[in-house]
Amino acid sequence: MPGTRKLGRASDHRTAMLRAMVTFLLEKGRIETTVTRAKEVSAMTEKYITLAKNDSLHSKRQALAFITKEDVVAKLYSEIAPKYKDVNGGYCRIIKTGPRRGDAAEMAIIELV
Question: I want to staple 42 with a disulfide (CB 3.0 to 4.6 A). Which of 1, 65, 92, 99 is the partner?
Fold first, then answer.
């Protein structure tokens, strides 16, 4: 799959990390992480918000297969997706916050618009 970032992790570790971060972003509305992780999380989150705009059993099962908490999927379909029903993409905002103190990694806040 060209264009995906490896993030210095094995594929199963990377998938688990992205699942957890997407779930947390949909649950809380914003998270702070590195810029490269934020870009990957943004892409995955936008995919599942777009999927949730089609309120069918098949799309709910696809979301449940990736998002780790059932109540977050319920929130996605009842609150988040209806808010963006007339919007075509651009559901996440990434704000760069500068380097991290310990290792100078570029940090960012990712939030739902």
Answer: 92
